[in-house]
Amino acid sequence: MSARLTIGRAARAAGCKVQTIRYYEQIGLLPAPARSEGNQRLYETEDIRRLLFVRRARALGFPLPAIRDLLSLCDEPEQPCEAADAIAKVQLEGVERRIEWLQELRRELERMIEQCRGGSIADCRVIEVLSRQAIRDTADNEVPGRGVSSRL
Amino acid sequence: MSARLTIGRAARAAGCKVQTIRYYEQIGLLPAPARSEGNQRLYETEDIRRLLFVRRARALGFPLPAIRDLLSLCDEPEQPCEAADAIAKVQLEGVERRIEWLQELRRELERMIEQCRGGSIADCRVIEVLSRQAIRDTADNEVPGRGVSSRL
DNA sequence: CCTAATCCCTACAGCCACTGTAGGTTCAAG
DNA sequence: CTTGAACCTACAGTGGCTGTAGGGATTAGG
Hints:
Largest sheet of chain A: 2 strands, antiparallel
Strand content of chain A: under 5%
Number of strands of chain A: 2
Radius of gyration of chain A: 22 Å
Structural class of chain A: mainly alpha
Order of helices and strands of chain A: HHEEHHHH
CATH topology of the domain at 7-61 in chain A: Multidrug-efflux Transporter Regulator, Chain: A, Domain 2
Shape of chain A: elongated
Number of helices of chain A: 6
Oligomer: homodimer
């Protein structure tokens, strides 16, 4: 008994929107599934597995190009797994860099807010910090495939 | 002696690209500056100050709509500063949420990578985790004005 | 004064990873 | 048989820029 889910059920199974699945198909991340007589997509168990793989990788912040690479590695299971390892390590480094950067931001914001003891805008510490303080150059603070994954 | 910088010099002063400044003008974040006879933008000291304000706020991760609000607060310095404070606090909360989420990701990635002791894709721990493990639902992990600030 | 290099101008397309909308078709329940 | 939900395609919009094309302006050197 194979699954044969409609796109809506597949989306619920994967915890994403219907459009997201169609988008993955459009960019070639997922294969075009079979269609019903009425032209509606029908997903087999294998399709769902692939979709879940993508969603889990996204949940770990992997960018789509990296996921594409991981998927094609999966299709050659006899190859050594160094490549997959390397992709994960790049991802980890990106995450670590982002954490450090955000922790710096947090410190700045906390200092800003702590020192602001009410009063008028004219002596607002928040505004003052932004108006006068030079933040040290934080170039190269973003993950390689830049822009963070949006929600999920 | 006023500054009167060309857009290129202004960009260098602010550590951003020329196009970024034009973009800020286009979306109404910065006022249209004076122009030279040859129709080139000329930035006064005050314009540069405003630009630097925007860039510093961006460096702290504030989204442009929040920066717009902060800027209009600056224009009424006799108002109480609670509004500015609130914006900063929202930003801080967003940063904290993102840090926590990224720390979870880091743990997952580290575990994945540690447990992968070479071999073939077939027994690669990285692939296996993505194939089989269900990550607990991490909805609502992104900052309110979602999508992270890109570089700088 | 001329020229070449470098800047500047506008207008628009592209990036990522979706999300939303419009306008139509198909399906399942009552 | 009708209703309403779910599906279809196609395209525009999000944020915050970045890149490109096809020109005009400015400036340093010869």
